[in-house]
Amino acid sequence: MIEELVDRERTILRLLTERGSLSVSLLSRELGVSEVTIRSDLKTLEEKGYLCRSRGGAYPALHQSIVERQQLNIEAKNRIARAAAELVRDGDRIMIEAGTTTALVARHLLGKRGVHVVTNSTLVFSYARLNPSLQITLAGGEFRRETEAMVGPIALRTIAGLNVRLAFVGTDGFSLERGMTTQLVEGAEIVKAMRAQAEETYLVADSSKYGRSGFVSVLGLAEVDGIITDSGLGELAARELAEASIRVTKA
User: Fold this and answer.
1) Backbone dihedral region of 80: left (phi > 0), alpha (psi from -120 to 50 degrees) or beta?
2) CA–CA gap between residue 42 and residue 52 (Å, rounded)
3) CATH code of the domain made up of 2-61
4) CATH code for the structural domain at 73-250
5) DSSP for 63-88?
6) Average pLDDT in the 194-214 region?
7) What CA–CA distance (Å, rounded) separates 251 from 90?
8) Are 123 and 165 in contact, with CB atoms under 8 Å apart?
9) Do residues 182 and 191 make contact, with C-beta atoms less than 8 angstroms apart?
10) What is the reported pLDDT for 85?
11) Where are the domains of the chain?
């Protein structure tokens, strides 16, 4: 996770994200450290899945938009994901949709036993695969680098054939008026498919997304069983949601 990186590693990742690729010698000059140190940093970042090394340099493994979103509201996202993970019981079958907050739910399942995770997210997979107590089903389909997600007919067929107790989904924006929204039609289809196969569906989203509207409408807020957000959600917004009988948990 991005908050586990030291300052120099974060700087390297930022520079690579901004410029696409950089040489060891250039990074050494810009950061004021030896090339040996830079090579060591690049090796560590590669092992963590953040970049790919090339001859004499490196380039980012993740799309710029993913890296940027991973660095926003880090503490709040972890609190939200932890609260969501607490809803999961040993032996559960769950679905987790693609997103930087939803992905963290898998990270916080440590200690759970016999949980089967179904996901269309390679970020979720990267966390879940580190936990030997989890069983993982990764939906196939068309890979979208900008969301680290598998989408399309194959992914939808996989999801439609499975039944779970819980689904955790994300959003690019949510409000009473517009409901849940996103930027991509394919992402909206995945959310709807997961909700259809789950006994309970929870929206996990940080409070900065409240009042925003994406391009594509996904679900009305009344169509999910609850919203897990952070304490930054304003009192007015919380009251409006409560009056609309929308269940909200502030992590």
Assistant:
1) alpha
2) 8
3) 1.10.10.10
4) 3.40.50.1360
5) -HHHHHHHTSSHHHHHHHHHHHHTTP
6) 96
7) 22
8) no
9) yes
10) 97
11) 2-61, 73-250
